[in-house]
Amino acid sequence: MSTQHVDVLIVGAGLSGIGAACHLEKDRPGTSYLVLESRAALGGTWDLFRYPGVRSDSDMFTLGYSFRPWNEASSIADGPAIRRYIEETAREFGVTGKIRYHHRVRSAEWSTAEGRWTVTAERTDTGETVQLTCSWLSACSGYYRYDEGFRPRFEGEERFRGQFVHPQHWPEDLDVTGRKVVIIGSGATAVTLVPTLAEQAEHVTMLQRTPSYIMSLPSRDPLAQWLRARLPARAAYPIVRWKNVLSSTALYQLSRRRPALVRRLIRRLTEKQLPAGFAVSTHFNPPYDPWDQRLCLVPDGDLFRALRGGRASVATDRIATFTEDGIELESGEHLPADVVVTATGLNLLPAGGMTLAVDGERVELPETVSYKGMMLSGVPNFSMVIGYTNASWTLKADLVNGYVCRLLDHMDAHGYGSATPVAPPEGADAPFLDLAAGYVQRSLAGLPKQGGRAPWRLHQNYLRDVALMRRGALEDEGMTFQPRARAAAVPERTVA
């Protein structure tokens, strides 16, 4: 039985993977590819997360694809709308029929002699093992573990008679009507859940150990509304997209250069949306600078509105122990609870958990160095999509997926069979992700390293990356190219 072969194998059918397939369809027609997805549906994060009010924490003019306009009215979209957008994009570009569901990739091994990857996947519906080969392998599976979120153990939690819920696995039948809810956490998930659950619950408390920076953003972009009334969608979309890119970049750069100024600005905006006498210094005064951790956005100030209305409250403290009917804090305060939502974060899982090997030698990710934030030193014909931590994920995903097409074109034009990054001669020890968030810090030891300069330095700057990825040289000191291998046999090709 012959092994099926494709030019490009994409792992993951979420926002990144569908984007990668669309780039191949439009930039390299005729390239054979398949998309392997471990779950039963496309959409990735936006199909997995089903908690009430789930929404983007980036505006959809930058979270949307560069090549397909976002046409809905809301700029901050809910999960179902984003999932629908991904599905419609896949259908429009002819990607849907090239997705294989229930295929979890377990391992991939590169053979220099054959010039291709052998990828082993497990059928999650039947348990069957499947092998495919490809010339290029694109890991578009994000960086967190889909089957298990981060869930710390709390003192005395076994005594609690209520219900624990993690947002990553929200029960469809959970009804909080008339119940007391405590949400542990202060990140994007928590600030989304608070106003949504407060509409039904008796009361919702956001229990945070450390406050986050939170900013309100209009749910509908005024410029987008104005332009849509006067221009075709494809003309209005890039204008709004670039406006949002430039404004978010300016805020980030100002935060890095003048953190005290941005801190004061955010505080003034927060104070305006809270009732007089609210303990802003306690509950909305993070001990770190803006953008040391990701900024939380709330559409139309819905979190602040829930706090003003008394349907929700914030407690900033540490958990001493759980009781039968709630949580006792270190301050001595007791929070009554019927339902506790542990919005405590994610577990990182680089490359979807697959193992990589090159010519029989296992690739240890912490021993590799990232090249342009998308490839690994010593690993041929392999790319991975890791979005920005300070901006929309898709901005970086689009650049990486477009760069792969450029690189494949270059290899074809020069008769190269493989492209292999090399580590910088001076070594590298910078962390792969420069973010103080707990889920990142817990996992840095298992991630690749960064160098101190380009092309081994991951820029968190879309404007610089546009120049580097769309216009920059494909041959530089960080990349080597190898001639095509003389394989003993031509593998069977498939596009179905």
From TrEMBL:
Keyword entries, A-Z: FAD, Flavoprotein, Monooxygenase, NADP, Oxidoreductase
Signal peptide: none
Flavoprotein in keyword set: yes
Cofactor dependency: FAD
Annotated GO MF terms: flavin adenine dinucleotide binding; N,N-dimethylaniline monooxygenase activity; NADP binding
Domain of life of the native organism: Bacteria
The UniProt record lists the keyword NADP: yes
PANTHER family: MONOOXYGENASE, PUTATIVE (AFU_ORTHOLOGUE AFUA_8G02570)-RELATED (PTHR43872)
Stated family: Belongs to the FAD-binding monooxygenase family.
Protein name: Cation diffusion facilitator CzcD-associated flavoprotein CzcO
Originating organism: Blastococcus xanthinilyticus
